[in-house]
């Protein structure tokens, strides 16, 4: 196969008129097909089959692990994650009993001590767990899996609940990357979303991560929250820049109170208008790029010397359920309630309800709720969408050689839409190579959606977020 030319980043262009013209909703493409296409016809036997196929594969490529910790002791009104609100730490002990069962069952299906190149703890709030409980989870993982010395081992942190000692403990356990939730530093906004968090406690966590030798610290911000305006978010971004994180994620708040019940506590009258949200985004993008951060894709920015930036420049950036990744595409095993995994040509999702999750493990089988096995067409389109999302480019020759197709014939229905995007300056396409233009990079989801056959041909009950 002829390799795709390495992507050379140029400055992204915020074309407000074009963004307003093409505004819409669509998938974030942490997978293709997207999770709303998973179905109950895929079950435990299917997942076990693909685990066993992975085990007998000749390459034995290292895997990625995702561990979901569903507990939070307070509720953030904007949150759409699968979570359980409680202050009872003993509930976590029970959960870890079952998580250990699942880890052992997965390891038994693999039949050997699998190597792990990536590990991510998400939630909920992973640091709801005590230091002892965190040690217990890591001991169970280390018993059945081998964490590689050069691996990426990350955890999501709520600075309101974590001090320096816990961060140093995480470093001793092997974590070397951290994602710090901030969202907004404005007191009125924090009150409106029920997340009161000081700059001091946030900086304490970030400084402790550096003391512990963490290789990367990422912070999460959200725009579109109640009572936000361009000036207030500018002040938050200034404070974040002063903390000097390696990566910054700037997420668009999706207000879907019919889907996420906690959002019903938000006063819709306090939400910024669509025009004001674009003001906030435009100003924030300018602040971040002026400060030297590189636009990675969608809502992610990183320092020029960060691993994500290097992976983007070298054409090896990947995207999965954990977001952007610096490693080559690998199988990902999801552990814990509601977690999603990808093994071979399949996706699987665990039971979303914790009692159903426990019941499955009590019955001695993996807690699979739903999933799907991809067709060859799904795999082809996943490759196209991955290339667009991660490299802002697509080599027709590479796709043709890999999948044995004639690109123009196979994508005859899609090409007129690509030509339309070319006419408005989102991309260039000469029949051999598609390159997303600087002003098309903020609209990359719109471009990727062109190749989403499921979106075009099959209805879904899912409600997607705004593409920007």
What does it look like?
The chain folds into 2 domains: 1-33 and 375-459, Arc Repressor Mutant, subunit A (Orthogonal Bundle), CATH 1.10.10.920; 37-334, tm_1862 like domain (pyruvate-formate lyase- activating enzyme, Alpha-Beta Horseshoe). Helix content is 38%, strand content 21%. The chain contains 17 helices and 19 strands. The chain has helices spanning 16-21, 44-56, 90-110, 131-144, 164-173, 187-193, 199-211, 230-243, 274-290, 307-313, 354-362, 376-391, 396-403, 407-410, 415-423, 444-449, 453-457; strands spanning 63-69, 71-72, 84-85, 114-123, 145-157, 177-183, 216-223, 247-252, 294-297, 300-302, 318-320, 323-325, 332-335, 340-343, 346-350, 368-373, 393-395, 427-429, 433-436. The two termini are 34 Å apart. Mean pLDDT is 92; it is low at 1-9.
Helices and strands in order, then pairings?
Layout: H1 16-21, H2 44-56, E1 63-69, E2 71-72, E3 84-85, H3 90-110, E4 114-123, H4 131-144, E5 145-157, H5 164-173, E6 177-183, H6 187-193, H7 199-211, E7 216-223, H8 230-243, E8 247-252, H9 274-290, E9 294-297, E10 300-302, H10 307-313, E11 318-320, E12 323-325, E13 332-335, E14 340-343, E15 346-350, H11 354-362, E16 368-373, H12 376-391, E17 393-395, H13 396-403, H14 407-410, H15 415-423, E18 427-429, E19 433-436, H16 444-449, H17 453-457
Parallel strand pairs: 1-4, 1-13, 2-3, 4-5, 5-6, 6-7, 7-8
Antiparallel strand pairs: 8-10, 9-10, 11-12, 14-15, 15-16, 17-19, 18-19
Helix pairs in contact: 3-4, 3-11, 4-5, 5-7, 8-9
Domain Radical SAM core: 57-291
EC number: 1.3.98.3
Pfam family, one: Radical_SAM
